[in-house]
User: Fold this.
Amino acid sequence: MSDLETTTRYDPADVEPRIARKWLESGLFHPPAEGTPDENYSLAIPPPNVTGVLHMGHALNNSIQDCMARYQRMRGRRTKWILGTDHAGIATQTQVERALAAEGTDRTELGREPFVQRVWEWRQQYGGTIIEQLKRLGASADYAEERFTLDDAYAEAVLRVFVALHEKGYIYRDRYMVNWDPGSGSAISDLEVEPREVTDTLYYIDYPLASGSGAITVATVRPETMLADTAIAVHPEDERYRRLIGEKAVLPLVGRRLKIIADEYVKPEFGTGALKITPAHDLNDFEIGRRHGLAQPQVIGEDGRITAQAPERFVGLTVDEAQRAVVAELESEGLLARTQSLTHTVPFSHRSGRRIEPLISLQWFMRMDELAAPAIDAVTSGRVRFHPPNHAKVYRDWMENIRPWCISRQLWWGHRLPVWYRGAETHVGTTAPRGEGWTRDPDVLDTWFSSALWPFATLGWPLQTPQLRAFYPTDALVTGRDIIFLWVARMIMMGLEFTGTEPFSDVHITAIIQAPDGRRMSKSLGTGIDPVDLIEGGPRPPVFAARAGGPGEFPAYGADAVRWGLLAMSSGQDVRFSEDKVAQGRQLTNKLWNAARLILLGVDDDARAAVAPTEPEDRWILHRLARAQGIVAQRIEAFDFSHAALALYDFVYGELCDWYLELVKPRLRAGDPGLAPTLLHVLTETVALAHPLMPFETEEIYSHIPGADGLLAARVTPAADPAE
RNA sequence: GGGCGGUUAGCUCAGCUGGUCAGAGCGCCUGCCUUACAAGCAGGAGGUCACUGGUUCGAUCCCAGUACCGCCCACCA
Assistant:
């Protein structure tokens, strides 16, 4: 127990671990599954990667969620903050594969079962870090019911959803153009692709006309794909080529005859106005090919090497080798008219960073438009509200143009597809089919497929569990705008489809915290910081040193200061990290600590008379307190956490300490008997007001207040009168 | 190529669809260490509110355009 008399500065390192233990032992964060979703309050954490560590985005996001959870709990609502982690297919598998590589082996050498076993062990070893960090932050989540997206019950829910959507015809298997990620050796979805600007060489290649008179020149940045060309397209109105439409050209190096076709997609002003068509290796070409009934020879395989459909001398080459070989041959045949450099954006894998290889592949897809319609309506009707509201427009624009989702992944870590094959037969079901000779599809589902079920699968769905009845639908979702499509939209769609209701009613999109120089926070750029280093003290990277007294170490600001600082700086959509704000938060904790000392050391322990303000300043501070309570409550409910934090600061600093406590000091020294009850009342209500934002210190102070029993976190304050 | 946000004090940011709205914190300057907190207290200096037009009795705020900065979406070889 810290000593108020001698501790003149708030010491988070002394207080926080002790308070955290108290909370966990109390069971307060694990509410009984009683009551109805209307009277209860619940929210589901965006599940962090199971092997991840806390970063600044998590710290802000969870400070906000905890602020809401504690606020609602103190309003008397049974509050459940659903906690858990995500198996994060590609990310986790990649980590383990890297470890295997360091041991000089790889997953194929290990085999599927042992590899998956190895990932589970990895999770066992590193999986608890982020949960411990959440406790460190003071997050009042339900640690007693921690979920994982690969739990048995959760997996059952995933398979049921897959089967149901398959029965409805939404999920199907098709040979279609996909984003092939050579890094992970898997198809990935459109949303996992990021465009990057690159400078390529644009090759102008002469394709001799079959008639023998002249050639038609095409421009391409991927000459190696010409081995799979099946046509040349020109714009139907292009005078230069009109007479050639329907003619044939000869594909160099291969000898195949290519029909010259007309298609409005072709832009006459780009390159030569003539476009080589490679249906198997370019999405546009794929669609043009479908329109014109072209064949789809595939010369690049999933292994990134040239296939047997190309002339023999190229087979087995990598894409890069093939490009060099093709260009060299074209040059020696005098068919390379010229080259030019071209800067354009091309897709890269968000995960592996490798350039996407578009190719036709047999994958599982999910049609989204039927599911999207009600999910659009949920937002336009206001049953789901975005905060700030302008995100609703982005959501709607994307949903209205939604495309099929490639949901199969050629990985081992994840939910394996509930699909079995035997010859030409396919069985889709939650259990294996009877009979001999069936083999299960080796692929797993996109991680986001299982994440989409998060708000209800964590509560036991498809079983009608007490948890589900008590806490679903949830109230709010707090997340970043980068996963509005990947996650938020899909949760709304799945929630509506499988539970008949929106999984939450409010979506708060948090600010994105940038480094002080405006770049994004990232470990690899050296612009990231570990929130735990702010809480407990730790290295301060150079970018953060500009005005904070040079590099070196962060002081141990404590969790409350970090939380308050993050909330206070999180107003706009992008915000630069400000150590000053965290320091301001620490000032506030210190101020509050000393105000508590002044009051608690100055009044008699048994001064518990009813509050009866005797002097004008007493009535004034009670009025200002009520006003502050109203403002803070209103700001929290409006998802305006920075103003909630600042309003708290203004009250504690500007009104309680600078004015009221200074004014009553003489009365305190004189032992004015009418003063003590007012002081204790104001202190109690002030720590209660501050608790959702600064839980540790306020809980500690509360434990010293005479007559205060139980936990502050469990103390119920009636709603302030908004008219006050 | 579309869309969204931003530009206010040296720094990081507030400013309710127009009238004591020109603010806060930090930093800086000047005073205060017997008296809860020097990680404190009191006071002070600092801004053509990006630019150009428009609406209005009146614009940081509303409208149009320009310039930068950031982000999202998009199949131009």
The first helix of chain A runs from residue 12 to 26. DSSP finds 22 helices and 27 strands in chain A.
